[in-house]
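Technical annex B. To support the medicinal chemistry partners, we prepared a structural model of the target in complex with magnesium ion, based solely on the information shown next.
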Amino acid sequence: MLTAVYATSVTVNLAPADLPKEGSHYDLPIALGIMAAIGAIPPDALVNYTVLGELALDGTITTVAGVLPAAIAANARGHGLICPHASGSEAAWASQDLDVLAPISLIQLANHFKGTQVMARPRPAVRGLPGAQPDLRDIKGQESAKRALEIAAAGGHNLLLNGPPGAGKSMLAARLPSILPPLRPRELLEVSLVHSIAGDLAGGALTDRRPFRAPHHSASMAALVGGGTRARPGEISLAHHGVLFLDELPEFQPQVLDSLRQPLETGEVAIARANHRIVYPARFQLVAAMNPCRCGHASEPGFTCHRQPVARCIAQYHARLSGPLLDRIDLHVDVPAVAAADLMLPPPAEGSREVAERVAAARDIQVTRYAGLGLPGILSNAAAPANVIEAVAQPDAGGLALIREASDRLHLSARGFHRILKLARTIADLDGATEVGRTHLAEALTYRIDTARQLRAA
Ligand SMILES: Nc1ncnc2c1ncn2[C@@H]1O[C@H](COP(=O)(O)OP(=O)(O)O)[C@@H](O)[C@H]1O
Ligand SMILES: [Mg+2]
């Protein structure tokens, strides 16, 4: 940036001109450029600094989004960073050696450069753990749904819970974060970058908690997949390396749901702008819940719909979900209404802590396996590409016979076939088994039978 000051006018040149510039990040660099030009700070003070920040009229520097990626870029260029005070601890994460200046106001920065009030380097902050999380122990009965939740958490698989209102679907999903393993350092940085761009890092602090995003079913396309005037990351990117929970799945707009298909496959989303294209990561785990029909009771024995035959009521509701979306869901679980007798039982002996230990052990096996194959970027079975999963989930003879028979019977797509292998691999990992056996495949197939049924109905 070049700034020249003449008697009556100030000329600021933001080069390169063809790069679109958005946001209030340029306030602080423009002001500092002018201050250096008029001698309010030493003329060479800004050499080797990358600067961003918004300026209030009284000279205080207010926070902007995207400080963490800016700090990483500054570090790569061998620059220091000048950023708003509130973003200092976010910037400090980029590198221990990065020179970070995070002033509250222009005056504080000018005093720093003059040497009258030298600022300390901000410290990287970690967000404290939120209060007690809901625990799986609160859920009575529903053993098969809990097992499916554990498998989904262990391998990062997509899950659909289907059952009547009040069966505990939302309750189950809300307990998923309590059994997910913490983010690994590499994941933490990727997640924080997206949240930084979205201006979502509270107080500049990072956390190793996996994101859990639960947008309402009225969410727009831009809110879910990203975009809008500032090409902000959407919920699917904010759920990167975490969970996107869509409650009442068929109530979402069908086009919005279909826009999830491509990111579900590739783990990223491209947002086209007038003259450039932004790609955000979006490797999220989809967890969805739905009622079997609009009235919600079609799965109850003896229920008769007052509007039309029950089968048609179910089919109409399911028709709102496209086949390709359902095909991407690995675990499809029926959650029946919980019986009063079950509700009166004492709480189950096993809670989130015990399940989380098994999940963490299975994830460690996966990370070690893919790192051993020279694929350190793959951290879960769900993220493994088809050719890799074929190699690592080769079933034994019994398993092979089973999957051959099942793929004919269920009319499995190639995607469906690979997804079953991934699921069986996770079930074997939870079991501590090196080979995928017939029992692992048999269990994986039970979660697919409902998908096949629903695909035919759709
Ligand atoms: N298995 C269960 N054990 C204990 N309480 C349950 C169970 N299922 C449902 N409940 C109770 O019913 C309420 C509604 O559950 P919710 O998860 O909202 O149902 P759904 O999402 O299936 O409509 C819960 O807040 C809880 O009080
Ligand atoms: Mg619910």
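Notes passed to the chemistry partners:
The chain has a mean pLDDT of 87.
Residues 246 and 288 are 5 Å apart (CA to CA).
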